[in-house]
Amino acid sequence: MKWDTCDPSEQYLLHLGDDALVLGHRLSEWCGHGPILEEDIALSNLALDLVGLARQYYQLAAKRIGAGTTEDQLAYWRGERDFKNHVLVEQPNGDFADTMARQFLFDAFHLLQLEAIEQSNDAELAAIARKALKETTYHAQHSAEWIVRMGDGTDESHRRISSALLRIWPFTGEFFLPAEVDRLAAARGLGPDVQSLREPWLELVREVIAKAQLSLPVMPQKLLRGKSGIHSESLGFLLAEMQSLPRAYPDAQW
Amino acid sequence: MSAPDQWPLWEVFVRSRNGLSHKHFGSLHAPDADMALKNARDVYTRRSEGTSIWVVQSSNIVASAPDAKEVLFTPSDDKVYRHPTFYQIPDEVGHM
Amino acid sequence: MAPTIDIEARFLDYVTAENKVEAKDWMPEGYRKTLVRQISQHAHSEIVGMLPEANWITRAPSLRSKLILLAKVQDEAGHGLYLYSAAETLGTSRDEMIADLHSGKAKYSSIFNYPTLSWADMGAIGWLVDGAAIQNQVMLCRASYGPYSRAMVRICKEESFHQRQGYEIMLHLAKGSQEQKDMAQDALNRWWWPSLMMFGPSDDNSPNSAQSMAWRIKRKSNDELRQEFVDKTVPQAKFLGLSIPDADLRWNEALGQHDFGSIDWNEFFAVVAGNGPCNSERIEARRKAHAEGAWVREAASAYAAKQSGRRSHDSTTKPQAA
Questions:
Q1: Minimal CA–CA distance to C295: which of A158, B38, B67?
Q2: Domain C7-265 sits in which CATH superfamily?
Q3: Contacting residues of C for A32, CB less than 8 Å apart
Q4: Closest-CA residue in chain C for B34?
């Protein structure tokens, strides 16, 4: 199947779905290994929301692609180069600070992105965003609560979250660097001009960072092109694991 | 004794829908009130059981002693005149 | 005449008359100890039991099955939490119970010391392991200790989907390709006997059982529960077109129940003693999660302490609960 022949709206849906699926998948790796039972349950809730959101995007994309395409084909049969998620979301979990830094920086972006998509001239897409905004607002509160607790907790937690933010920060530049998929979506009024999200994002992030007694990392951004299918080395392993069963038994129905 | 890093225990009360009162659902551990509320949402309303949540730190609950059960509650047993069935009203009067 | 005999006899009459015991009521020390041991063991089983299934969350073969499995394993975390809370009402902290799990002092269900080797194991666990657990848990909803029975009622309500989702996985596999059918049969072969062992030693080798029944903690003996499970499960396996790995399994017309082969109790006791295929991995995973989470828990405690220090400086009025 050739996925790169999809039209811009389908490409955009895949981009949004890939972000949600890959991040949801990463969070699901925490299940059974969280720092305390209550947080284990909370992390699984985030994962459930995100994988659920990915399904909605893929289902809509599958419907539009037609020819009997299914959500599972989109998730399990596209290769690494077809995935259009941000490189940030595929980064390994690391410790709890790494996971929460990744989550916090993504949640703030995700909120603004969904608010913009809610105004999309694609009514079906806007409806998905409207529903997702509620859960994402909760995600953003949850990750911000943890950033504050780690930043203003113990010396160790302060040190860990500071270095986690330094590690993750260079991946955030890709949010605001328009790729082909963003440009086409913005031109058609499907989604925002991602450059316009940069300032409000910084404002959201800065507020929490200050409350957490942390400082905003000042460092260069990585050159990343995940949205064009050029990923970090982590994604290949993630997909190899995730897609292993359907690919080992191509004719099987589950 | 509990280790120093154990988070305190909280009791969770959930209103399942408007019109009902909050009901005790169970307990959980949380470091503070904000997190207790969030944890309660994640732990006790996974199947949309709630419209409102209260959390109270367990150590703040004042409970009557079980030994005092007789003293506190048996005196009301003989006040049968508080119950509507105590009174005989002729059937002709109708429902009252 | 020792007055404790008197009060213990009164307690026994009280629970025999189907009255519930609440946290602060007087109870015999043995009753309290039995409950703490049983409830914490049950809680540990939920938590350790997350691991063999979590092993397949990242490899679930469809998005739908990924969500279902994740929700199910998350439920187990919730159930562990409800049970730890019930045990805490008896005066033992969750930290103490977890320390006992990590030191090997406390036990958990030996079934979770077997590895999950294929996707069909997710089906077999839901169908057989959850099936066996539910058999036990339905009985425990009526346990004489109030906090325990309330936790069990909530758990049973939530678990009703667990066995069904497992059976659904088996159905898909049994209807699928030959490879899928083989996968399903292989899973049944590996999980059948450990599932029967979940009910614990046979009645003549289960010293605490009679006391637990007298105290109305449990209502049925291990062998009774096991028999009910076999009778329920045999037709379900037949419907799937799978065969139960027991040459001695047959319907006994006279007794109106199935006869089945004898359980390898040596295997059971070896696994309980810590020598199952995955005992050390399971405990190591729990220890690691707890140890690596220590700084996170400490951070939140430190922040809470700072905040309450800050708050005592200002006297803003808080909104009233309503």
A1: A158
A2: Ferritin, core subunit, four-helix bundle (1.20.1260.10)
A3: 47, 50-51, 54, 73, 77, 285, 289
A4: C304
